[in-house]
Design goal:
Length: about 230
């Protein structure tokens, strides 16, 4: 598995998608998703210039981050349980998976205890998939004022996953709805929401064309998952 070759290919595809959408390449950040990847894979990706890494589980991050290069930036992209809020605030620079007002309030409390302000993204489930977490648009619009009022949270935008399909074009309407929801929320709040975290290994080009600012690439970049780390506490 050659991460450097994978990176060059993915960079070319992001650049081409940006050109098709009339966007500057600098408007899209590539996140390496490190679920199941050992620290040496993270170190190799960092050596190649990747600076943003995403973890799905707080437990795995707790076991791994300290073994990785210190210049890596870490975001939580997986579902967060309320009882893990304190660790999430400690280990991550941003949480992408705020999917309820109660979870947001718990993260706000943890951030207050830590004396920090926590950047977050609100996870949305515009396709209504029962197997995925996330706000439906109506609930989010109803709660956005209360979310925005939490003093220790900074809402930077939205995160979403499209339903899996062999045809990445089927994800495009989902990504477009997420962007439109972001624009509606911006009007409601009277403030910009600069980040759209959407697009994965199988559909990131459509996501870029529809406005993604962070694409989350795992196996297409780093190869098959192969970590032997046992998460602390499990």
């Amino acid at each position: 598995m050659n991460i450097e070759e994978n990176l060059l290919a993915i960079e070319g595809r992001i650049q081409a998608a940006c050109q098709r959408a009339g966007r500057d390449r600098s408007s899209v950040t590539l996140m390496a998703v490190t679920k199941g990847q050992p620290p040496e894979v993270v170190a190799e990706a960092a050596r190649l210039g990747i600076t943003l890494f995403g973890e799905n589980k707080v437990q795995e991050a707790r076991a791994k981050i300290g073994l990785c290069p210190s210049n890596c930036h870490w975001h939580l992209i997986g579902h967060l349980q309320s009882n893990k809020a304190r660790d999430a605030v400690h280990f991550f620079e941003m949480i992408h998976s705020i999917d309820s007002l109660s979870l947001a309030a718990e993260v706000n409390r943890a951030a207050e205890k830590s004396g920090k302000t926590m950047p977050v993204l609100l996870e949305v489930n515009v396709a209504g998939e029962s197997t995925k977490f996330g706000y439906n648009p109506g609930s989010l619009l109803a709660e956005i004022a209360a979310l925005n009022a939490l003093p220790r949270l900074e809402i930077h935008g939205l995160m979403a996953m499209a339903p899996w399909s062999q045809d990445p074009e089927k994800a495009r309407p989902i990504f477009r709805k997420v962007r439109q929801l972001k624009e509606s929320l911006e009007q409601t709040l009277g403030a910009p929401l600069p980040q759209l975290s959407m697009g994965m290994s199988g559909d990131f080009e459509a996501a870029v064309e529809e406005g993604a600012t962070i694409v989350r690439i795992g196996t297409a970049l780093l190869g098959p998952r192969r970590s032997l780390i046992r998460p602390v506490g499990e």
